[in-house]
Amino acid sequence: MRIPFCQVVSEPAWEEEEVIRLQGVLRDTPVLSAEAEDSCLWLANPSGSYSVASTWKWWVLLKDPVVDVAVMLWKNIAPPKVKFYSWLAWKDRLKTSSFLKRIRVLNMEASSVCLLCRIEEETINHLTLSCPVVWNLWSDMVKWWDLVWVLPGSIEALLHWWAGFKFKKVIQPMWKVVPLAVMWSIWKARNDCLFNDKIVDGPELAEMVKLRVALWCKQSYRDLQYSVEDIVNNLDRIKV
Ligand SMILES: [Zn+2]
Fold first, then answer.
1. Domain boundaries, given as residue ranges, for the chain
2. Which end of the chain is more exposed for a tag (fewer CB within 10 A), N or C?
3. Ligand 1 center to 132 CA (angstroms)
C-alpha cells in the first residue's frame, strides 16, 4: 500500500504567514471615527453614490468574468505600438491635455479643449468615448458589424463587451482589432488637429478605421481570401 505524501509545515512559518495576512487586512481597513455617522456606500461607483450606469457596468463585468481585456489587447493582429497605445488607453494613462495640465507640463492658461469637437475638455474618457465625434465613430463601427448596442459608460466596459463577443474563427481577429483601430485612429486624428491644423471629418475617420482593420488583417494573414475592398465594403457577406 502506498502512503500519500504529506507536507509538514512548521508552526512558526505558518504563524508568520498568518501575521503577514492579518497585517494586510488591517492595512486596508478604513479608519473609524467616533464622530462620523454611519452611512451606506455604493461600492460599484468610486464616488460611493448609486447610479444606474455604475450598476450596468458592474453587471456587465460580473456577467462574464472570464473575458480578459488584456488578452484581447495583447493577442491581437494590430501593430505593437497600437497595442501599447490601446493598453495605455485602457489603463487611463493617455497624455491628454487635461492630464498634462494636471502634472504641470502644460501651464494652467493653455487650452485643454478637445480638438475633435472643440466643445468639452479633453479628458481620457471624453477622448476615448464620450466626445460626439468619437461616439459617432464607435456607432459607425457597430453598424459596420450590423450590431445594435448602448454605448457603455467607460472604456473598460466597452472593451469588456467587445472581448466577450464571438464570431466565426476566421472573422474573430478582425473583430478584435476594431477597438484598437478606433482608439489609434482617434489619437492620430487628434494629433493631426493639434500639429497640422486639420479639422476632423467623421465619415473620413470611419473609412480610415475600416481601412486600417483591413490592412492589418491582410498583413497578418497573407492567405486571407478576402480583399481589402471586401472587408471595408462587404463585411456583411464575409460574416455570413
Ligand atoms: Zn470632443
1. 66-239
2. N
3. 6
